[in-house]
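Query form — protein AraC family transcriptional regulator

QUESTION: What is the three-dimensional structure of this chain?
INPUT:
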Amino acid sequence: MHAEQEQRHVYYDHDLGIEAYNLSGIVQKFPNHFHDYYVIGFVEGGKRHLWCKGMEYDLNAGDLILFNPRDNHFCAPINGEILDYRAVNINMDVMQRAVKEITGKDFIPHFTENVVYQSDITQSIGDLYDAILAHEPKLKKEEAFFFLLQQILQEHAAPFDEADISEPNQQIKTLCSYMEEHFSENITLDDLLSMTSFGKSYLLRSFTKQVGVSPYRYLQTVRLKKAKEFLEQGVAPIDAADMAGFADQSHFTNFFKEFIGLTPKQYQKIFTDKPLPVTPAKEWPNE
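ANSWER: The structure tokens for AraC family transcriptional regulator are given below.
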């Protein structure tokens, strides 16, 4: 019954270079993972239990969610309630350019809170989301985007050099870099051990504690990021799976939907489908 209620939509806005994300009627659990981009979202309906960086939250309609790149998190429904959720996903380079426009300073911000209960900023997210879906003029979308970021920067963010961020040690960083460079290869635990002075058990515990996810989950997340890039470029899903290092198409599709909430084909359509031109009455047409 729930499957029939589910709606999953992602829209890519070429003017802003960001994704507008909407899930409704969702009961799916999302396992522990992270993103390489910022997420600014809110619960529109339903309840969720969220785990993020060792903290737990019970989320309700009107609660704001802020994820920095690499903030590991997972969530599950409360009492089987369906989730309605809207968000915008912002790559680091887009965020850095926007922050410089707003503040005049060249820095990468860090969200100081992952959850803000009953925040009025959710209205600004909704305004930006609606502007993107309506194919509003670029100026209107930019205004909504900058107004949203300005609110968050003022109330819930700090530059990285002012934030209390504990980074992984050098050996763990080396393992991360290796997996990012060799993501398509059949990497084993012995391969990782050869680059450290750790034992197997200590490596797994130390990596998971410092990074927030296990080595295998980290590798799969890197592969997922690469697969998304291939799909955005128009590579067929079966080829994207192979190029990203996934064992087979079925595993890739299941993993992709588990973490992204869409199938690879559904995700690719937001980049390959051209939106219909919209020229509202009594307004200038889009450029």
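ADDITIONAL NOTE: Residues 275-287 have pLDDT under 50 and may be disordered.
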